[in-house]
Amino acid sequence: MTYRGWSDTANLSVVGLQWGDEGKGKIVDYLASGYDAVARFNGGSNAGHTVVIGTKKYTFHLVPSGALKGKQLLIGAGVAADPEVLAEELALLPEEARSRLLVDSRCTLVTPVDKDFDAMLEGARGTAALGTTKRGIGPSYALRALRLSPRAGDLAAGFDFAPLASFYKALSLDPARLAAWAASSHELLGRLTGDVAGRIESIADAGGSVLYEGSQGTLLDLLHGSYPYVTSTHTTASYIPAALGIPPKLAGKALGVMKCYATRVGSGPFPSEIAGESAERLRTLGNEYGATTGRPRRVGWLDLVSLKYTIRLNGVEEVAVTKLDVLSRMDDVKVCVAYKLNGSETTDFQSAMGALDQAQPVLDTPLSLRGADFEHGLPAEGKRLVSYIEDQLGVRVRFMSHGEERSKTIEL
Ligand code: GDP
Ligand code: IMO
Ligand code: MG
Description:
By secondary structure, the chain is α/β, with parallel strands linked by helices.
């Protein structure tokens, strides 16, 4: 393989800087034209990535969001893949999309029993439930760590399900469906599995480039997020080479995606969360309902404390800011600039993490986007927002999104 310096790979990753649902799908679809392939590297069908073209809306859970741009579609080893969801999703796409898809043979599979397992664990937690998507993602990754779960490439070789079935039984979960599930999964995956890492290296060797599509958001990272209210995988750009099985130098740069306010689905601390009328208005204007579960998303103001942390974790130098149209219809826009904790103020998310549920937001009102019109380029209010974000966060704003439709994107 030809040697490429650290900085000259054209590969790019798109990662969420908040609690997920930042608009990654929209940005990946927008950027995909410039790449040869789009690769998912983490998470599973807990993700819901929305792409809107004209009046048509697509929600991708497993298939990479480059699907509508005719690109190679890669599902890497780090993904927990649910064959049933994959089959449903492929059925909604033109037949040729299937021929562009490659699933890594090392991908962990999510079985139907893992979904029961997920629901059982949530039930056991009672009032401390995490609010998972119940897609079986946590159990599937846990079973991978226990070396019990089947991988995509194992079905062809006749995987021995006995240890997994006895484990399920020990938890009073019914493994009876496994055999039929394995047969239909093999039928689907047999023709789709291969070596995703090898494919990425071949693309690089031929001078091409890959766009990596992150799922969830950095604050949901298993190690670095608001544990235990997190997902069960890593969500940062630094996970990409490990998850895909490629050399670190092929990971490329990271573009962070952030909403100009904040949302969170599920339980857990959310210092800049708001309630009441403003929250209702923000939720309605932003159509803040989960793309996977339909749950109303909790909403809050832009949180600079957590963003500085997630920008550092991902090594992000450039960001895409989404949902400007939503804030332009809000009267009072606030920004959380620090947390009040134990009587003093902090701007250090890392040190606040342990007591995040007690952190009170220190709010400022540095900007109003009221009435801003983004249809003919970036208006003065938008320019002020760009300067504010760049000054506060030390990043460059590269993209501004002002509507769900693909074309409502301004490149700066
Ligand atoms: P993802 O998980 O990060 O891909 O984000 P989701 O698709 O779950 O949620 C983002 C939602 O916001 C989707 O409904 C998008 O269609 C929508 N969206 C993305 N960008 C914008 C924008 O700039 N303005 C508006 N109004 N909606 C947007
Ligand atoms: P995208 O890729 C928002 C949240 C769940 C829950 C926690 C654990 O669309 O941004 P899990 O099912 O992963 O075990 O649930 O993580 N969560 C997401 N929240 N967007 C997502 O993905 C999410 N994926 C998981 O709501 O709080
Ligand atoms: Mg989503």
